[in-house]
Structures are given as structure tokens and as C-alpha cells.
Amino acid sequence: MRLQTTDYRPQTMKSVAEIGENALIRQLSRLVPGRADVVAGIGDDCAVVRVGGRYDLLLKSDPVIERVHFPPGTPGERIGRKAVGRVLSDLAAMGGEPLWILMDLVAPAKTAVRRIEALYRGAARLARRHGAAIVGGDTSRGPALELHVFAVGRVPRGKAVLRSGARVGDRVYVTGVLGGSLQGWHLRFPPRLAEGRWLREGGWVTAMMDVSDGLAADLPRLAAASGVGVEVEADAIPVSPAARCADHRPQTKDIRRKKGGESPAAGARSGLAHALGDGEDFELVFTVPACKSAAFEQAWRRKFRLRCSAIGWITGAKGRVRLREGDRISALDVAGYEHFRDRR
Amino acid sequence: MRLQTTDYRPQTMKSVAEIGENALIRQLSRLVPGRADVVAGIGDDCAVVRVGGRYDLLLKSDPVIERVHFPPGTPGERIGRKAVGRVLSDLAAMGGEPLWILMDLVAPAKTAVRRIEALYRGAARLARRHGAAIVGGDTSRGPALELHVFAVGRVPRGKAVLRSGARVGDRVYVTGVLGGSLQGWHLRFPPRLAEGRWLREGGWVTAMMDVSDGLAADLPRLAAASGVGVEVEADAIPVSPAARCADHRPQTKDIRRKKGGESPAAGARSGLAHALGDGEDFELVFTVPACKSAAFEQAWRRKFRLRCSAIGWITGAKGRVRLREGDRISALDVAGYEHFRDRR
Description:
CATH architecture of the largest domain in chain A: Alpha-Beta Complex
Largest interface: A-B, 78 and 79 residues
Shape of chain A: globular
CATH class of the largest domain in chain A: Alpha Beta
Number of domains of chain A: 2
Strand order of the largest sheet of chain A: 8-10-7-11-9-12-13
Number of helices of chain A: 9
Low-confidence stretches of chain A: 248-269, 335-339
Distance between the termini of chain A: 14 Å
Order of helices and strands of chain A: HEEEHEHEEEHEHEHHHEHEEE
Radius of gyration of chain A: 20 Å
CATH topology of the largest domain in chain A: Phosphoribosyl-aminoimidazole Synthetase, Chain A, domain 2
Oligomer: homodimer
Structural class of chain A: alpha+beta
Largest sheet of chain A: 7 strands, mixed
Number of strands of chain A: 13
């Protein structure tokens, strides 16, 4: 975040748009003390809590809001699917299994029951496919259509894959392809639960998260949590066909605006820029010790048809995420898409 | 719910305002199949799920939304307190203990960070007082200020107090006083966790719920869940001073409007009408076998200073809730405050 040098107001005097989501979460998490039964709290994909017995529980909540996470005309089933998919993707990023889901629905009073039903149907279908039961929730009127999904999952005790486990020398991988998600993928992505669980069970991964705000925003979070740096190879980023198509359209929202015009990737190579900055990919990004990487790649290819790309490695340059293009290296220290930031 | 006789459209063709919250929830819960690890799903104060070990888990989500659950000028701390208090009240109604809380915050981008912080502070303070840890959540921009709180609690395996356990002959009790909550109580009520837990541990109660929509709306739900009827003694209802004061002001929102003008309690005796219809009391209403009631009342008085009133008894008139005033009996079969209904 860049403050203007003349702005000396304390953070709390500003609006949430001025400080952005990352700073707001940092600010709020100070109000919340830790506790022995909380293995991981605010700041990872899910909270991990200890309940006794063979499993830890994973807790996650996430909203989808009209005009923020989907446009007004979106079919109800797609909205419900996305809402559940988002939290399942977070459970996947911990190597977990989903168990139970609650849904808070907010809707203007004039909303057709049919639309709400479609929304629930989409949610229930995806939940069922992944073994999760919808067990409750609330319905309330409000100014816009919203669905807040709360999921409980589980992972064997002490085995949750956190963002904080990456070590210098680890290889960095990402599943699938990235970029252009708003052209449709964000409403129909399959949460990578099978992949996340397999990665955990095989003992392959040291750290993992899902790509929700774009690699350029998410990799710095993984680096910060692990106290390491990341170097990414531009040519290795798996750019989606949708991101490449975006090249041919006016770049009204391309990554340059989010990055303050710094990126050598923006402009001519905007397919890559989309892949790094669009977000909503809901793929897994994770780290594997270098000594295991050959065996891992072989095992992955045997198990999954889904693409898995080695995109870089973990460095000792703490907190710094860099993009290498040939012999040129640039910083990838972007705020990415933050929910509250003004997007000038 | 009363349909106009000329309205033959199927439920799904209508708006959520036309069918109301109760019917909407019935409609949606058909889309959600049961499962062996779900002891109680949609329809009780909390969902009860089996996780293995000595405890069942309680899951609950509830929103507070600007202009629905609080007016725009409400201090942030009060909003946070109410949001957490609502879900804790539901855990109390199962005889449970709270463990962990997640909060989804929605706010317009221009909202001051200070306001959000106050909101979290109010939430965190009430959570801490009752032994609950805030472990995560999400922040997103949206059209209005909202807080969606998700709580996980626990109760010894098989011991959750459901709405469905009331038996013919049981006495019906309510804690505290009722009515006029919007004059302030709804922003500062203490969730009755100690009372709920004591009631469960003592083995006193057969059924319990919290009074969130008013006795006139909530008792029919308890009756329906238990497959019994309820008869309430008008003179025994503990009317709050705030509800009595409401007598002296114009009755623009009194219970007659919600009840379609049926209630003999409305009008002259609007203190009682407020007590039955206002809602947001967050007191506990519960049933005790008649043979235990004398011992229960004595034990309660020894343990708590909080008022506890015997207001009626469980009858065999399945699904019928009646109000007795002297020798006059009237139906109390109200929809009460439903979030989506048009309030003409």
C-alpha cells in the first residue's frame, strides 16, 4: 500500500477504501487474541481448530455479493455453485475434506422464490458432489442478493497444510491454467479437493493456498507467511486461453492499473498480465521440496490429467516476490485485487 | 400464512415477500437431504452434528443488516455485540457452550475504519466474555453494513436440547421479561448461556428455544416441532417496562398488523401485545415436566436472580397455540415477524 506522503491521518481515521482489505484485516486481527485450541487463525485459507480426537477442524466463511462477485443477471444455480465452490476451494488448500455447510441468504423482498431455489439447488449440488451436507443457515431481506457460506471441514490432527511451511529451495507449482476467469470460469470452477487431499496425504507439499486474488497478490501472502521469497519464471506461468483472448480486447482493467504501471509484463504481453492479476482462478499454488520434485511430477502425472506447472522456486529474499523474464527480473509486489481499494 | 383465494400461482412463481420466511425455509429445506452425522438440521436453533468423541457440535449462522436489524446511526460496538449475541443466544437455546466464531463483514467502501474496528471490538468483547474465540472471516464491499456471524459450539454427545422434546402436560417457562426490545434491549441483551447450560445439565428441560421473533411466532414453532399444542396464560406473560411504556405511544407497528387484527390482546392491552409480538427478546422459552416443576422453580431461584415465569402448559391439541385470558381463549397462530413478508 502506498500512502501519499502528505497523508498523516492514522489508519483508523480513513475509509476502508483508502486502506484496502489487506491492511484492514491486519488491523482487525490485532483485536483478536490467540488461544491454545486455535492452531491457525486469521490469515490462512481456513482457520484450524483442535476439537480432540483424530481430526482437526477447518472453519471457513466466504460471501458472494451481487455486483461484487457476480453481475445481476447471473443464473441462480451458478451463484450458488460459486458460493459453495469458493469455500470448498479454501478447504482444498488445507488438504482437507468438507463436512457441513451453513448458508446465510440475503435478498431483496421482491426476489422470486424460483431464483432463490435455483441458487440453493446449485449450492446443494456442488456440496453433495464433494460429500458436504447443508445443515442450516438463515434467510433475511437486504439491499442486494448475497450468499454467505460457512463450511466446516476436517483434516487429520496436525496435518493441515498451512501457507507458512515453504522453505528456501522448494519448487513452486500451480494447478490448471490462470487468467481470464471472469469470462466464465469463476462461475463453474471445480474446487481442487481431490488434488489438495492427495498432495497432503502423499506428504509432497510444504505450503499451499488457493489462487483467489491472482498469483501476483497471493504469492506475496505465501511468502510473508513462510518468511521467504519467491522467484517466478514468466515463461512457466500457465496462461489460460481466456487470458490470451483478452489480448484482443481493450485492456480496461489490466494489471497495470492494479500495479501502478510497474510491470514489464503488462502491455504487450497482457495474456501473462491477466494470468498474474485477474484472480478467481481457484487453482492450488503449492511448494514441494526440490529433492522430491522429480518423483512428485511423475506421481502427479500418473494420478491426474489436470495440468500442474513448476513456475518457480522459494528464495531467501524474505517477503520479496520476483518475476524473471529471460535475464530481466522485476518485482511482483502487488496489492492485486483488494475488495475495498479504490481502483483508479 | 393466508393466501388470497384467487392466487393460484405455485409458490416458486411468487416473490419471497409474498410467501414469507417460514414458507421459504420449508421450500428450501426440501432441497437438502438428511445424513447420518446430522443429528438436527434446518429448523432448530442450531444444527447439531456428530463429530466423534464426547461432544456433538452446534453450528449456527445469523446476520445483522443495516436497516433490517439495526438503524443506520447505531454505534459500531452495539452492532458487533448484537451480531455475536444473536448466535450465542441460539447456542444457549441448545444448552451448549460456544467455542469458535467466524465473521463475514460487508461494508460500503466509504465506511470509516474506525467504525469497523468498533464493530469488531463489540463482537470480540462479548465473544471473549463467553469463552468464544474469533478465528476468521472475510471482509467485502457491498451496498450496506452487514455482519454475518458463524458460531461453532459444543454439547455433550446426544444432549442437545431440541425444540422437539415437549410432551403433553409439561409446564412452559420463559426467562426475563418480554416486549419493547427495539427501545434498546436488542442491542445489549446478554445471551442466556449460563441459564441454558444449567437447564440442560440439571436435566430439567424437555424442549427449548430462544425468543427471537416473539412468543406469538416462536411458540407455534416449538409446538410444531414437538407435535403438541400450547396454552398460554395471558396474565402470566412477563411484560417488560419498555413494552408497557409503548402503550403511551402511537401503536404504528403493534401486533394487530402482524396478526390480521385477530388478537383480543391488541388494542387496550398493547403491553401484552408487544410482549407477544415484538420479538428480539433473546430470552429462553422451555418446557419442564409437570412432576418436576416445583423442584425446578426452587432450584432456579437458588441459582439465578433472573426472573423465570411459568406461562402455560403443553396440550394435546397438535400445532395449536392458544392464549387464555380469564375464561376467554383465542388462537395465537401468528406468522409474527417474518423477514420477507410485506407488512401492510
